[in-house]
């Protein structure tokens, strides 16, 4: 049958919540996605009909999180477009291009997707030193919500190539 006593606990249902620097960013829409992307090198050996077990080599690895954010607070707007100029006048906030091409260190953030499971189980998908890398599209419609789809991407730590840009945690409360 394939179903065990642990099946209900091991199945996770729901979109979860997105946190930025350990603070809930607000509501999300659609699916939240977390993916680890690897580029592999595998030598093409003479006489072997395909990739040979044990010869794969990870050339690059990154992780990204994708979410749709309908709550466009002034703080979120700043995060969506790294290295932007932000002008404040009273309650107004104006975000525009700074013209500076090198992304500043304070643009890299900690991002986490927290998805609750059954019986105090929680999954956390973390990106370290994350940066919004994808195009940020603001699409307004009469039958929809102005909610850009955001792609965050983790970064390796300068000076420490062993510090992973991502983590997946399976946490049981109280353990």
Gap from first CA to last CA? 31 Å
Estimate the strand proportion: 35-45%
Number of strands: 10
Percent helix, as a range, is under 10%
Compute the average pLDDT. Answer: 91
| Low-confidence segments | none
Query: Which secondary-structure class do the elements indicate?
Result: mainly beta
Shape: globular
Number of domains: 1
* Count of DSSP-assigned helices: 2
Question: How big is the Rg?
Answer: 20 Å
From N to C, what is the helix and strand string?
HEEEEHEEEEEE
Note the main sheet.
8 strands, antiparallel
What does this 3D model show about the protein?
- It is a single chain.
- The chain is mostly beta strands and 175 residues long.
- The chain has one domain (7-172).
- It has helices at residues 7-10, 74-80, and strands at residues 17-20, 23-24, 29-41, 57-68, 84-89, 92-97, 109-116, 121-132, 149-153, 166-172.
- The protein starts with 6 loop residues before the first helix and ends with a strand.
- The relative contact order is 0.21.
- The mean pLDDT is 91.
In short:
6% of the residues lie in helices and 43% in strands. The chain has 175 residues and is mostly beta strands. Strands 1, 2, 3, 4, 7, 8, 9 and 10 form an 8-stranded antiparallel sheet that branches. A two-stranded antiparallel ribbon has the order 5-6.
Task: List the defining traits of the structure above.
175 residues, 2 helices, mainly beta, eight-stranded antiparallel sheet
Which SSEs are present, and which pair or pack?
Blueprint: H1 7-10, E1 17-20, E2 23-24, E3 29-41, E4 57-68, H2 74-80, E5 84-89, E6 92-97, E7 109-116, E8 121-132, E9 149-153, E10 166-172
Antiparallel strand pairs: 1-2, 1-7, 3-4, 4-9, 5-6, 7-8, 8-9, 8-10
């Amino acid at each position: 049958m394939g179903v065990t006593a642990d099946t209900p606990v091991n199945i996770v249902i729901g979109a979860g919540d997105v946190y930025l620097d350990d603070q809930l960013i607000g509501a999300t829409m659609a699916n939240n996605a977390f993916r680890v992307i690897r580029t592999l090198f595998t030598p093409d050996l003479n006489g072997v009909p395909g990739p040979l077990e044990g010869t794969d080599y990870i050339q690059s690895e990154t992780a990204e999180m994708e979410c749709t954010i309908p709550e466009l607070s002034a703080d979120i707007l700043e995060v969506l477009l790294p290295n932007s100029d932000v002008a404040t006048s009273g309650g107004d906030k104006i975000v525009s291009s700074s013209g500076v091409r090198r992304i500043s260190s304070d643009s890299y953030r900690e991002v986490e997707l927290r998805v609750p499971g059954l019986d105090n189980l929680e999954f956390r998908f973390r990106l370290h030193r994350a940066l919004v890398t994808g195009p940020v599209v603001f699409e307004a419609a009469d039958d929809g919500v102005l909610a850009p789809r955001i792609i965050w991407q983790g970064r390796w730590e300068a000076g420490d190539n062993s510090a992973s840009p991502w983590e997946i945690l399976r946490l049981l409360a109280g353990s």
